[in-house]
Design goal:
By secondary structure, this protein is an alpha/beta fold. The chain has a single domain, classed as Rossmann fold, CATH 3.40.50.10320. The protein has 7 helices and 7 strands. Strands 3-2-1-4-5-7-6 form a 7-stranded mixed β-sheet, with helices on both faces. Helix 1 packs across helix 5, helix 2 packs antiparallel against helix 5 and helix 3 packs across helix 4. Bound molecules: zinc ion. The site of zinc ion has 5 residues, from loops.
């Protein structure tokens, strides 16, 4: 399949031209995965001054609600604009996304080019929903590893190795009551950005018509639950690859007075 455009974010899909580098890249199987999983976190990062990008492994098409891939891509561009992030859609096939060497390499090329400090990936399978999600989880994890491998530059268009400092995951397993079991679990405060997150999901008009309003109740309910547990108005539960290190116990455990 063509991978011609895989290393250049469409400048119409994000703020300004293609960035030199990105602090954080979040990856999903389909446009809307990242918004639903961690859109509030990304918007908050942007507010805090970080450069953030979304990579979708497929364009998510076809779907029952969308008349054409162009419409879905326009929705994805609008969602990125709302969050203030750059966006890149890779040309792998929706519904037939499988972990494999080519897709791992193409995603690792994106990491090598934009050199993120953190990659936020889709975590784990989603029973009763698209199997692309579980494949994407494996692809992202492998690409994070491929990004740092030396003596293999010819495989990555001579892009030099890049070591990603930390990997985190968001979950789309809305059908599960079980919390993820990765080494670290933490709640990102999205009190200031929940509304932007919801707007970015609503940008996918073809995917979330009024009869799918349940999705918004789930997203808002989870944000309220996770936020309340951590002491915020709204939160997103993310996980990390290793336990979080603490240097100042008071600052780390006690929220500043609001
Ligand atoms: Zn999806």
């Amino acid at each position: 399949m063509s991978t011609e455009n895989t290393s250049t974010p469409d400048s119409t899909d994000g703020p300004g031209d293609a960035p030199e580098s990105l602090d954080v890249i979040a990856v999903g199987a389909h446009p809307d995965d990242v918004e639903i999983g961690c859109g509030g976190t990304l918007a908050r990062l942007v507010q805090q001054g970080y450069d953030v990008g979304i990579v979708d492994l497929t364009d998510g098409e076809p779907t029952p609600g969308s008349p054409s891939p162009e419409v879905r891509l326009a929705e994805a561009a609008e969602a990125a604009r709302i969050l203030g992030v750059h966006r890149l859609v890779l040309p792998f096939p929706n519904r037939r996304l499988f972990d494999g060497f080519e897709v791992r390499v193409e995603l690792a090329k994106v990491f090598r080019r934009f050199r993120p400090r953190i990659v936020i990936g889709l975590g784990g399978p989603t029973p009763m929903a698209s199997p692309d999600h579980a494949e994407a989880a494996r692809i992202i994890d492998a690409a994070v590893f491929y990004s740092r491998l030396t003596r293999w530059d010819d495989t990555f268009d001579e892009l030099p190795p890049h070591t990603i400092e930390q990997q985190a995951w968001y979950s789309l397993a809305f059908a599960s009551l079980e919390a993820p079991t990765d080494p670290a679990r933490f709640v990102m405060d999205i009190s200031e950005t929940l509304e932007l997150k919801l707007q970015s999901i609503r940008a996918y008009k073809t995917q979330f018509p009024p009869e799918k309003d349940r999705v918004f109740r789930l997203v808002e309910g989870r944000a309220a639950l996770h936020g309340a547990i951590a002491g915020f108005q709204a939160g997103e539960l993310l996980t990390g690859a290793r336990p979080l290190g603490v240097q100042d116990l008071v600052k780390s455990l006690c929220l500043p007075p609001s």
